[in-house]
Amino acid sequence: MNGLAARTAAREMDRQRRLATLQHVLLRATVYAGAVITALICAAPFLWGLVSAFADGSSPTTEHVRFLFHSTPFATFVLNTLIVGGLVVAVTLALALPAAYALSRLNRAWGTRVAVAILIVSLVPSPLLFLSLSRVVATLGMADSIWSLVLVYPTVTVPVSVWLLAGFLRAVPVDIEEQAMVDGHSRLGAFVRVVAPSILPGVAAVVVLTFTLAAGEFTYALTFVWSGARMPVSTGLAARLGDGDPMLWRSVQSGAVFVALPLALACGLFLDRFVAALASGSQTD
Hints:
There is one protein chain. By secondary structure, this protein is mostly helical. The protein has two domains: 2-53; 73-281, MetI-like fold, CATH 1.10.3720. Helix content is 80%, strand content 1%. The chain has 14 helices and two strands. The chain has helices spanning 2-53, 63-71, 74-105, 111-122, 130-139, 146-152, 154-170, 174-182, 187-198, 200-216, 219-224, 233-241, 246-269, 271-281; strands at 55-56, 59-60. Strand 1 and strand 2 form a beta hairpin. The model has no long low-confidence stretch (mean pLDDT 81).
């Protein structure tokens, strides 16, 4: 009887093990299938743009690309975007890095409240701010100028960058910074010599994200800049090229592909750092 009971128990355990394995496989297959379907849905607009850019009916062609670069102000739009994006990155780092350092290192009583306030500001939709910001831009005489975008874009990029940089800074042990200060360095010197090299990959990730946000922003660009020679690519493609001509619309698709591809690749390289920084940044003191 004992042998029979042992064999029965063993068969039951084996059945349970096979059932658990099957459930695990089905669960993973469902997750992967959902991920693939979601990825295809998200990639559908880009794939459609890619096909439209290099197809003419049923045959491939590069005519739309040549037309884009030789017969439209696309290069001017890209140059404006590079100028605005570079300046916004510089302003964002100059403001966000000290703020993130203060939140992650100084341990003041107001740190948590300030961090929550920054998070709330980052969640405010940009269409709710452009009316008040347009008054500021008009008062400063920056209307229809790329400088207006350099002024207003940090309202979008700085809050997000503060949270990301604070997360990167929290990942650096405080002990190494304190040891540098014991060795005679000031707090600034310790930051420059010890902390800054440790967070350079994180800073690079913030640079990529900030430039991407500046390059893809549409509401402010459409509101504050209306001359074609000063437009960034986000509004220039739609406002100056999309006039209903099928050739131009295919060229618009070409421009969107050429702009989106490098930004998507750059963001993909730093995606894991964005997630890690947001997870660390949410741990306010």
